[in-house]
Amino acid sequence: MAEVAWAIPLCPLVAFVIISLGARRSPGFSAALSIVAVAVSLVLAVGVIADVLAGGHVEQSRVWIPAPAIAGPIVPLNAAALQSGAAPQPFSIGFQVDALTAVMLLVVTSISFVVQIYSLGYMRGDSGFARYYAFLSLFSMSMLGLVLANNFLALFVFWELVGLCSYLLIGHWHERPAAAEAAKKAFIVTRAGDVGLLLGVLFLYWHAGTFAFGDIAQMAADGRIPAGALTVGILLVFCGAVGKSAQFPLHVWLPDAMEGPTPVSALIHAATMVAAGVYLMARTFPILEHSSTAMAVVATIGGFTAFFAATMGLVSTDIKRVLAYSTVSQLGYMMLAIGIGAMSAGVFHLFNHAFFKALLFLCAGSVIHLVETNEMFEMGGLGRRLPLTTITMTIAALSLAGLPPLSGFWSKDEILGAALAGHPILFVLALATVGMTAFYMFRVIFLTFSGSFRGTGHVESHGEPISMALSLVILVIPSIISGFWGMPFAGNPFGRLVSGSAESTGFHPVVATSSVIVALLGIGIAWVMYGGGRIEAGAGLSARIAPLHQLLIRRYYLDDLYEWLVARVFLGIGRLAATFDAEVIDGAVNGTGALTVLIGGSLRRIQTGQVQTYAWALFAGILVLAVLLAGLRLER
Amino acid sequence: MPTALPPLYPITLQHGLVLGAALFSLGMIGALTKRNAIEILMSIEVMLNGVMVTFISFARHAQGPALGGQIFAIFIMTVAAAEAAVGLAIVIAVYRLRRSVAVDTVNSLQG
Amino acid sequence: MTGLGCPADLPICNPFQYLHQLVAAILGAILPEPILTILVTALSIGMVTTLVAIIVMSQVWAERRVVGFMQGRLGPNRVGPAGLLQSVADAVKLLAKEIIIPYQADRGPFLLAPLLVLVPSLIVWSVIPWGPGLSVTDLNVGVLFVLAMGAFPTIGILTAGWSSGNKYAVLGGMRAAAQLISYEIPMVLIVMVPVIIAGSMSLGGIVQAQSVAWFVFFLPVGPIALLLFLIAGIAEVNRSPFDLPEAESEIVAGFHTEYSGMAFALFFLAEYANTFAVSAMATVLFFGGWTGPVLPPFLWFFIKAYVVFLALVWVRATLPRMRYDQLMRVAWKVALPVALLTVGATAAEVSLRAMAA
Amino acid sequence: MPTELLVAGGFYTFAVLAILGSIALILSRVIFRSALSLTLVLASVAGAYVVLGADFLAVVQILVYVGAIMVLIIFGIMLTPQQVVLETARDPGKAVAGVAVAAAVFVVTTGVLLGSTWPRSNPTPVDMPTTAILGEGLLTTFGLPFELASILLLLAMIGAIVIAREE
User: Fold this and answer.
1) Is the dihedral of CA C249, C254, C259, C264 positive or negative?
2) Do residues C281 and C308 lie in contact, with contact meaning Cβ atoms separated by under 8 Å?
3) How high is the pLDDT of residue B4?
4) Mean pLDDT along residues B66-75
5) How far apart are CA A332 and CA A251, in angstroms?
6) Residues 6+ away with beta carbon under 8 Å from A405
7) Does B1 contact C140 at a Cβ distance shorter than 8 Å?
8) Is residue A266 within 8 Å of residue A115, measured between CB atoms?
């Protein structure tokens, strides 16, 4: 099955093409087509993972641009690389299937599948229904292609496609100014990171002469790439991951991306967009691990982001924003894991996180679908109206908080254990984050489901639509059990599969105990403050620490800083450039035009309008040419 | 009457080429000095005939039975016929418009 | 090679060879070789020209008599027995008359025009095979040569029309030119039918290809091709019902309005030479040329050609003159498409027969 | 020897006639006489073709040029009747310049033609029926140009009709 892995992204692509070409006239058919396509991909992905479990590994490449076309001065390898015998390889495009890819395929196809089913109910009656499904298909295709790519070049192409799709989907309700703004913000902010990625890819090619992950990793292992160059290159690549996975300081787009439809948020947060950054770092881990500096940077940024985002999650009153901060925070965890060398733990967390985060979003969507607001202070008491949502969301929140035996516990524990082994400061940060995560998640649960309804107007309880309910039920299962795949008591089969090593990390009783205690503490504080849907205690506390609260509410003023940068600095530079363009460049262009007119005006006098004069000039010209050629021949 | 050309042949390639060049140049004089558009067309026909003589001389003296030169002459003839048809149509249209076929009165495109 | 019933040693059966032998016997000793050949050729051409002149005189008489009988009158019967010498008398009269050159005329072209019309008509006769080996020369492209020679009279007629300085002459000349150009196209196409069947453009080759069956019996295209050939041929030589260039009811006498005396006689001669050339070509292309039993080949040839000529006379006596637009419509909307189809059908039939064989 | 003389005599006769005709074409001030001179040129060139072994082309030359193009040109002359006589080159400078360029072209061309060594100057006799060879060439090697030439003719025909048609 792994040999035909290339067909996995092809199915959604076909669906996208057919919908774009005309099936969009029928929304129902478009949706069915899209769901069937992703279902086929899901089946194929299951087949692939079965193959991989049996030890399969496939890598196929095909030449895209042959070497002669890119040889020579166009792609200069640096002198050192040339001396080490590296020659420019042809640009090839290909796919590979290993454990990492297989896991990602499974995650992407299953989450896409569930989200698409969920959207049947959530998006019912939307005017852009078919378009929405077309872009969902394209989104899935891009992400699947991304995880299948076996070199940086192909990866970059799909990387950009993912960015494009997220732009299109976040801005699905583009007639809303906020959605359009959010889409632009997501696109532009991630683009800032993408510049780094592109530079990093080119930089690595400059030194290694190839785009293939495996080849570069091999050269890095052999020490054929200078250590400094390796660090610079991989950190530039990490810039892309920072943008895509919303790490500090490029995290600002993700909370705003909540303007998109909630299922899209689920997809972005769980499987496609933000997972791409973590996947990229996991994929390049064999390169990364040869640079301790880069490792330290990745770990630090990851740990800091985890903590930093969690603090902002403490105070947000928008249910989806809380989830968004939690995503940023959890992604920080994953980066932290990769940065400290526990790559498989990071991927494991990504795997588990995908399911329960998707579930959380779908539950939030269910709530929002009912009350038509994101503000938690206008909810409350929804537990009786949405019993299924309440149960599933509570399970997902427990999983996220890291309580055994739910999936989140196992991966989080593995990461904490790895951090404790060598990075005590990061361990402390991570442990604090665990507590904050538990707190803000249960703040959400209490504010939403318990107590009485605080909003205005009458909310009609109609329960969850069948497709949405089905999706929740489907997702709650892996949210509970997916952690067992990486259970240390079972020898951590997941970790061994992904990292490819035989040894497994052991169980850390101390770490597990402390993290569970901290999590329970967080839940307890949440209960004390918000239990039963009360909001007064929280309000009182925030009034007492008003400056800090304000800092968190204003998201550390980072967005304001960026806005100021854009409004003042960039626009100032832009105005300068505009003036330069209008005065100097346009002046030169206009001057050229004026000069041409001037010359033409004087030259037009030789246009007598007499055909015979022209013919005469023609023959005279031929004559001169003939004489010149004859002269040349005589000279020779 | 003999129907096959004799192998001994006093007329060389250069004879035909010089005849072609002479016709071409004479036609050129006509094309450059005549005022009547129809006369210019006729002069151009003379020039084309000069070219055809050249091609046929080459065909006569070239190796092999392919006769590429004569085929080129056929194409030239085709083009000449097309040129005459379109040229005369233009001349008649211009005459209808301006009551004149003198090329030096047709100078609307003067710069 | 000789045909049936004509021994090669008889001078009348092989006149050119006989002429050559005669000249060589008399003058061979004095004259060097190229001059001898040129002389013999010139004498052959003279012979043919004389023959054509005699034929034309006979034709003029025959046409006038036949048309006369067809129209219920006598025709010329005063000069000589049954009016046989009428043509001679006409010729003498024309020779004796003054050639009037109008004041407005362009003298050189005016005098050149009749020659431009007549000479090519006579040159055509140098390739028509009277009998086996009986032509001045048998060209490989004989058929095309005949058609090409047919192009010069057009120029001659236009020259006559323009140089006369007479508006009727100009109109007649332009009519003639338009008519000739229009019918040239179906003519060239239809002549390709026998060429395709025979696989040769040499007139002798075409005749030999008909030793088994005449091409007019090459069904179904043969009769259609013959009909079209005769229509186009009549139009080419400006005979009734296609004689618009000299339509006396509209434009006096067309392009030769201003011609008199011998100059007019030359046009007259050319017209009949051309008419008989069309008959002869029809004989060569469709009626097997000189092939036939018992009689000497050249006799067969003249009999057949004369029959065709009489058919043309019949047409002239029967049909009224067409209107100009009808003439053009027939050429472009009937003759041309039918000719194209016929050529295509011929090619198809020939290749089918070749495949079947 | 005798045929040699014939061939040479034929070629020189036709060549001289063609050149004289061209000169008459240039010098004549009456356009119709120019047209007759052109007819002479075309017929003489056809004769030269016969000497040069292109019998089919000679016949086609007469058929197409004399039978069609010349008639068209004379038609054109007759349809533009107010221009029967036009002063040749009102501007003597133009005439001098034209003749000078043409003469220079002739000198240079002839110089190049005579000064070059041609790969094969020895004449090879061609079997006379060139028609078959030409036909085969036109339908095989030169098939595409042949079709293009047909399209060109068709377009020229349509174009001529459209341009000259009276509204």
Assistant:
1) negative
2) no
3) 44
4) 80
5) 10
6) A480, A483, A484
7) no
8) yes
Q: Report whether pLDDT(A586) > 60.
A: yes
Chain B CB contacts of C137 under 8 Å are 1, 3
Please indicate if any CB of chain A lies within 8 Å of the CB of B94. Answer: no
- Choose the weakest-confidence range: A145-149, A193-197, A535-539: A535-539
Cα separation, D59 vs D47, in Å, equals 9
How far, rounded to the nearest angstrom, does the alpha carbon of residue C111 sit from its chain's CA centroid?
A: 23
Q: Looking at the complex, does the CB of residue B3 fall below 8 Å from at least one CB of chain C? A: yes
Amino acid making up residue C103: Y
Tell me what pLDDT residue A74 has.
45
Reported ipTM: the value is: 0.76
SS3 per residue for chain D:
CHHHHHHHHHHHHHHHHHHHHHHHHHHCCEHHHHHHHHHHHHHHHHHHHHHCCCHHHHHHHHHHHHHHHHHHHHHHHHHCHHHCECCCCCCHHHHHHHHHHHHHHHHHHHHHHHHCCCCCCCCCCCCCCHHHHHHHHHHCCCHHHHHHHHHHHHHHHHHHHHHHCCC
Q: What is the pTM of this model?
A: 0.56
Q: Which two tokens stand for residue A257?
A: 């991306």
Compute the distance between CA of residue C292 and CA of residue D31 in angstroms, rounded to an integer. 52
A499-524 mean pLDDT:
76
The tokens for A550 are: 């304000």
Q: Which amino acid is at A190?
A: T
Q: Which secondary structure element, helix H or strand E, spans residue A329, and what is its range?
A: helix A319-339
Q: Across chain A, what does the average pLDDT equal? A: 81
Written in H, E and C, the secondary structure of A53-70 is HCCCCEEEEEEEECHHHH
Among A189, A324, A193, A330, smallest CA distance to A260 is for A324
* Average pLDDT of span B60-69: 68
- Give residues with Cβ within 8 angstroms of B51, minimum separation 6: B20, B24, B76
Q: In angstroms, rounded to a whole number, what is the distance separating the alpha carbons of residues C182 and A294? A: 91
Residue A273: helix, strand or coil by DSSP?
helix
Query: Could you say which DSSP state residue A95 is in?
Result: E
pLDDT in tens, B6-40: 444 566 777 888 889 999 999 988 888 887 888 88
Radius of gyration of chain A (CA): 29
Tens digits of residue pLDDT in A227-236 = 888 888 888 8
Q: How many angstroms separate the most distant Cα atoms in chain B?
A: 62
- Measured CA angle at D87 (ends C164, D74), to 5 deg: 40
Crossing angle for the helix pair A227-244 and A292-315, to the nearest 10 degrees:
20
Phi-psi region of D53 (alpha: psi -120 to 50; beta: other; left: phi over 0): left
Cβ distance of D99 and B56 shorter than 8 Å: no
Query: What are chain A's partners, defined as 3 or more CB pairs within 8 angstroms?
Result: B, D
Contact B3 C140 (CB under 8 A): yes
Which residue's entry shows tokens 């192998």?
A: B7
Instruction: Please give the Cα distance from A606 to B69 (Å, whole number).
Output: 39
A128: which 2 tokens?
A: 């852009």
C126 contacts C137 by C-beta, under 8 angstroms: yes
Q: First-to-last CA distance in chain C?
A: 28
pLDDT in tens, C233-243: 888 887 777 77
Mean pLDDT of A264-291: 83
CA distance B66 to chain D (A): 7
**Angstrom distance (rounded) from CA D53 to CA D62:** 16
List the beta bridge partners of residue D30.
D85
Listed in sequence order, the residues at least 6 apart from C264 whose beta carbon sits closer than 8 Å to its beta carbon are C94, C114, C256
Residue linked to tokens 């940060």: A429
Q: How many CA atoms lie within 13 A of B32 on its CB side?
A: 28
- Omega before A405 cis (within 30°)? yes
B76–D contact, CB cutoff 8 A: no
